[in-house]
Amino acid sequence: MTTDPHREAPTAPLLSVRTIEKSFPGVRALSGVSFEAARGEVHALLGENGAGKSTLIKIISGVFPPDRGGVLVDGRPVDLARPDDARRAGIATIYQELLLFPELTVAENIFMGHAPRAGLGRIDWRAMHEKTNALLASLEIHDLQADRVVGSLSVGNRQRVEILRALSQDARILIMDEPTAALTEYDVTRLFDIVRKLKGRGVAVIYISHRLDEIFAIADRVTVLRDGAHVATRRVADTDAAELVQLMVGRRIESLFPKVTVPIGKPVLEVMDLERRPLTRSVSLTVRAGEIVGLAGLVGSGRSELAQTIFGVTPADGGEIRIDGQQADIRSPAQARSLGIAYVPEDRGTQGLVRPMTVRENFSLAALGKVAFGGFIDRGAERRLAGDGLKRFAVKTSSLEQVAGKLSGGNQQKIVLGKWLANGPKLLILDEPTRGIDVGAKAEIHRLMGELAAQGLAILMISSELPEVLGMSDRVLVMREGRVVAEFPREQATQESVGAAMMGSHENAEKAA
Amino acid sequence: MTAVTLVSAEVSPRRRLKVLASQEALLAIAVIGLAIAVGLYNPRFLAARNLSDVLLGNAYIAVAAVGMSIVIVSGNIDISVGALIGVLATISGTLAVNGAPIVVAWLAALVAGVVVMALQGVIIAYLRIPAIVVTLGMLSILKGGLISLTGGKWITDLPDSFHLADIELFGMLPFPVFLMIAVTILAALWMRYSASGRAIYAVGGNAEAARLCGISQPRTIVMVFALHGLFAGAAALLYATQLRVIQSTVPPNLELTIITASVVGGVSILGGVGTVVGSTLAAVLIAEIASALVFIDVSPYWIRAVQGVLILVTVIADILRRRRMAGA
């Protein structure tokens, strides 16, 4: 056992991930990713949303198998067909959404599935409590009792229960997926203390986080992923925030995004000091006719929440929204729609598409007023509307009567987009318009966005893909912690400048230095 | 049945095949096929008198199942409808016996049905309490209230003019059968061609997407329940007027028979899919099976088991169809 992570291990590394490849229908999620973690090492995984981190950790935890490549523990290949295989190999994963039973006690949660037995299948409650207390003592956690009900605990304490659960199963490799996303500063400090103790015991920690300052504070090495590929592995001591941001966002061909310059008109949307706590704080912005404004930021920075507040899903508590210069008090999506706002939500599965309905019915859903007369739908008008949308968006479907849920992701996204445009909006809010769809469908949606802007539509686009934001936008706004923290005209928006504003890494770079 | 239903799950690009494999077509084939099969075994089954009795005695279940189907398509369920039909029948009968104008007695059942169901709809939609809980509560209130208030007595001496079910249109079409067919066709057209009908499918298929399209989920649900109450009122009138007495106890598990008709009729228990034509055909099929059991010398008590098999087969087929649609 070693506490020096920089020492070259004389034997095989504790965890070795070899050229993992994984594809989902229409998407290549991972293309040959490898990294290693030694005993007592904290190894950070860094990458944009969609870079493949989640897929990678799911493969290591046995949630689904890789198409190619494999995982070695102690130099021996392990077959990770099921989560149980990973557990037996000493791999434990702590997901963002903690998987605990809120009605049960701390001890019961820790030993769920492997409780000490007392013969005849009975649970040995005394042994269970003693073991729990020993685990608590070993990590010097003094504010947690074995018989507390988990539902009454703070998020930080619940996370500690999950860590203890992993240790109770003798986990030697601990994967933590954005463990600090929901923690207070104090809990973050305590988490780091625990991680250091685990290091001291020779546990390898795979640490996934967006927060660069944390990576510099706790990690020994960092592996950067981009578009499902391994970009670089660096010792934290040998790198800095600027280099990591650059590795993360990379340099991709901007001609992928055929930006058409169109004349920009009058403001369509003006937002002033908009408030809806906790994730919309005094936001002001303007989107003009013919303009595409990109909204960049990390997950959880408040971009989708802002969009939903403008669209009336979660009406604002304060501030002002103007549409075409007219003050608008938007209290519901129906109202937003009648004002000429269209919103294509982030999650097309749950928010956008009615899967059991046909293509025709989905197309007309947001524009029923246009095809219904006296409360009854004119089938001819509806078919024309849907047929036009089908052609305009080049949706690949066998017929208008095809059930929408059966189409590919890209085609579903085109229907969701087309549905909103059937209504002839002035302002289009797009939330992650190309997430999870293949390159061809992506390019087509980008081309359509350009066309729509050329027709005078004002577009507000939320995207976690920095190249998309930079390629498509006339102007880029950056959100962090519910505020708009930076604004760049197209010429000044670079991966470095926008990336740094997203991460707040001016400050972090100083901290690290 | 299983194999055939599974075929319907395949979305065939050839539409003609698809129509033949629809749940409605399968049920129609089953209704006719069963009549022929049982008729071959025992020709008395096909006697006009028997077939008409089967339809007359069960039309009210089909009418109630139309409302139930709309409720289930919207992503909800109602288990209070059986008890409500008993209450509405009693209200109407009591008014008629006590000398109220017959039309008032009839209208009272319809109005009370709409009021009770709309109230449940408001609680479900605006307080966001699951429909199964709200309607379970209402079931107990209605059942308990009815027994307490009537003391379990039957209503007799109903005026002759009260008996809606006795009317024969054009001297040959019994009113209950006419109402069953009319309600089914009107509701089917409304569900298929009206904007409100489309809203019900949207709310049941994906409430979040519907909301973002500006469709008010609460308003849609209240409308659905109010309509369901109207159909329950109509069903109660058929039930109340088909015999010379009104019993204070409705047939046990009436609500389950009604839900069975909807589900076997192809209405997805998960919401968003199904038609009222299917549920009416299924109600007829279930009644036909119950009658057929007698003619083939099987204890009629088996009807519950048969219903159970029908439900499981249809629900499993529906779930498999959904999985295939999810495609993952």
From TrEMBL, chain A:
One GO MF term attached to the UniProt entry: ATP binding
Q: Which InterPro entries match?
A: AAA+_ATPase, ABC_carbohydrate_import_ATPase, ABC_transporter-like_ATP-bd, ABC_transporter-like_CS, P-loop_NTPase
One of the record's GO cellular component terms: plasma membrane
What is the annotated localization of this protein? Cell membrane
The ABC transporter domain is annotated at 15-252, 251-506
- UniProt-listed Gene3D superfamilies: P-loop containing nucleotide triphosphate hydrolases
| Statement: the UniProt record of this protein carries the keyword Transmembrane helix | no
The way it spans or sits in the membrane comes to: Peripheral membrane protein
Q: Which Pfam families match?
A: ABC_tran
Q: Which CDD domains match?
A: ABC_Carb_Monos_I, ABC_Carb_Monos_II
Q: What keywords tag this UniProt record?
A: ATP-binding, Cell membrane, Membrane, Nucleotide-binding, Repeat, Sugar transport, Translocase, Transport
The UniProt entry's sequence similarity note says: Belongs to the ABC transporter superfamily.
Q: What does this protein do?
A: Involved in beta-(1-->2)glucan export. Transmembrane domains (TMD) form a pore in the inner membrane and the ATP-binding domain (NBD) is responsible for energy generation.
> What is the protein's given name?
D-ribose transporter ATP-binding protein
Q: Which organism is it from?
A: Bradyrhizobium manausense
UniProtKB/TrEMBL annotation, chain B:
Give the Gene Ontology MF terms in alphabetical order: transmembrane transporter activity
Q: Which GO terms describe its cellular component?
A: plasma membrane
Source organism, top-level taxon: Bacteria
Per UniProt, subcellular location reads as: Cell membrane
How does this protein lie in the membrane?
A: Multi-pass membrane protein
Report the InterPro entries cross-referenced here: ABC_transp_permease (IPR001851)
Keywords, comma-separated and alphabetical: Cell inner membrane, Cell membrane, Membrane, Sugar transport, Transmembrane, Transmembrane helix, Transport
Q: Can you state the subunit structure given in the record?
A: The complex is composed of two ATP-binding proteins (LsrA), two transmembrane proteins (LsrC and LsrD) and a solute-binding protein (LsrB).
Report the PANTHER family cross-referenced here.
Answer: ABC TRANSPORTER PERMEASE PROTEIN YPHD-RELATED-RELATED (PTHR32196), AUTOINDUCER 2 IMPORT SYSTEM PERMEASE PROTEIN LSRC (PTHR32196:SF29)
What does this protein's UniProt record list under function?
Part of the ABC transporter complex LsrABCD involved in autoinducer 2 (AI-2) import. Probably responsible for the translocation of the substrate across the membrane.
Name the record gives this protein: Autoinducer 2 import system permease protein LsrC
In which organism is this protein found?
Bradyrhizobium manausense
